[in-house]
Amino acid sequence: MSFEYIEITDPLFVENKEQTGEDDYIMVRAKQYSHVPIKIPNWTPQAHCYTTLFKQYEQELLEAEVYPDDVWVFSYPKSGTTWTQEMVWLICNDLNFEAARAESLQIRFPFMDVSLIHPTDTSSFERAKNTARPRFIKSHLPVSMLPKRYWEVKPKTIYIRRNPKSVAVSYFYHSQGIHYRGSMDTFVRSFAREHQFYSPYHAHVIEYHELQDCDNILYLSFEEMKRYLPAVVRKVCEFFGKTYSKPELELLYQHLSFKSMRDNPTVNYKSRDPTKKGEQFIRKGEAEGWKKELTPEQIQLLDEWTKEKVPNPEQRKLFE
């Protein structure tokens, strides 16, 4: 068996799991990871949070095909992934706005591993496999769980990260719109105890940034995109060997503005559950919106959590 499955016995989780809708959550640890080119000495991957669905798809995950002309976007959930996907797809597709508006981002840029956490009519791995090349693939997988072919092929990849307090708020509203039935406070505490999908959060970010000999990966941050999008766009264009005129780029900036993204139905898909009243997928897109959403106690909790999990001051800069 390539993975170890671990029941979550944390008292807070056990007390709340039925009320919050998390009763099928499980921690999964990769047992085969020597092929991962990571610089961390004596590295052993941690267990990550999924649902029991993971067991049904572990072979499809391990054997997933990876092609040299693939483009992948990786992130921990709610880190600016959708924004990054739309930017990358347009830059790589000659700024074809008409095509982007005609087809859902979910089709243009399939979420390869969603079957590991949510029931799907068709295997998300199968959908990714059958996507026309060149493929654009979204994934939240940690480095220890990427398909083995990824490390052999090393396709062009973007990794996007975001401040943990912003992630916590965005992840709560996103989860509430799909399945989550608990309060913001319960969610924040669960997030800080690593019991939300793809957690542990800090390890996810750090391990991608500690890979070696991976010049196929370009690292971005949500905050960087918010501060000055044109600089990020130039960086991404250079990474993919693309050149566009100033007027063309102005149209791209306009398309990627948060007002435009909020009004764009091809990227702003609604909750899968029509009975849910959670906010739409593209919600506010604020870099420091957490200041209005979190209590002082929650802010302190998350800050102390980051200090505990990231003692290295250089690595802690990733979470500012």
What does this molecule look like?
The chain has 320 residues and is of the alpha/beta class. The chain is built from 17 helices and 7 strands. The protein has helices spanning 11-20, 54-62, 81-92, 97-102, 105-108, 124-129, 148-153, 164-176, 184-192, 201-209, 222-227, 229-239, 246-255, 258-262, 290-293, 296-309, 313-316; strands at 3-6, 25-30, 48-51, 71-75, 136-139, 156-161, 217-221. It has a 4-stranded parallel beta sheet, sandwiched between helices. It has a 3-stranded antiparallel beta sheet with strand order 1-2-3, with no helix packed on it. α8 (164-176) crosses α9 and α9 (184-192) packs parallel to α16 (296-309). It is globular. It starts with a strand and ends with a helix. Mean pLDDT is 94; it is low at 270-281.
Offer a quick outline of the entry.
The chain is 43% helix and 11% strand. The protein has helices at residues 11-20, 54-62, 81-92, 97-102, 105-108, 124-129, 148-153, 164-176, 184-192, 201-209, 222-227, 229-239, 246-255, 258-262, 290-293, 296-309, 313-316, and strands at residues 3-6, 25-30, 48-51, 71-75, 136-139, 156-161, 217-221.
Strand coverage percent: 5-15%
Helical content stands at: 40-55%
Count of DSSP-assigned helices: 17
**Elements, N to C (H/E):** EHEEHEHHHHEHEHHHEHHHHHHH
Rg, Å, rounded: 19 Å
The largest pleated sheet is described as:
4 strands, parallel
Structural class: alpha/beta
Distance between the termini: 38 Å
Q: Residue ranges: pLDDT <50 for 5 or more in a row?
A: 270-281
The overall pLDDT, averaged over residues, is 94
